[in-house]
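Intended use. Records such as the TetR/AcrR family transcriptional regulator entry shown here are meant for training and evaluating sequence-to-structure methods. They are not intended to support clinical decisions.
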Amino acid sequence: MSVFAAVRGIGTFPARTNPMPRSTAVPASASPWQPADRRAQQREVKRMAVLRTAAQLFNERGFHATSLDDIAERLNVSKPTLYYYIENKDQILLECVKMALDLMQSGIGEVRAAGGSAIDQLKACMRIYSGVVTQDFGMCVIRIGEDPLPDPLKKELRRLKAGIDGHFRRLIEEGVAEGALAPCDPKMAAFMLAGALSWIGRWYRPDGDLTPDQIADQGIELLLNGVLQRAPTKVTAP
């Protein structure tokens, strides 16, 4: 063999029967970040937890006696974490009260859209009202109210309350027109009904003897039919 032939043979190898492919696919690693819609959903769940916990503490201790530190402690998070979901304590109270009023508005709106007699609609709306004030956000409306809030925020809440009051007044007017309700001042009647139903949020206890449904049943019966014993109707002989 010549020198040149020997040099040409250095570094040569037999042909492979299964050559390695030029490119090998590498599986993509899973991203530690959730999709945007999932992150938004998780953030909303946590924000609602902040609001509900705050409402519970407001109802238990009062607004002024509850601090952001208290809310953070019950949630097992640091106080700075709360600022990712809320701005301050006033905003928390505003959101809690709005949550309850929005529940009332949407529920009453569904009743009105479904139609039916005025008295049946009035009873259904009273049941919704009673049910909301036995929940954390509803109790917050009744026990804390709007007084701790600055004036601009109070105006927003009063607008929402006025919408609910308007539904009750119109239902009472319609009930009188249909003959199901005795003639009365709709404004005064609406104030009395809403005031009595609101007070449930003051004395209701989840561990009490009556369930929210039982309270609603008895409350509606008392408010619409009263407590006076009526004499039995005498049947005259023909």
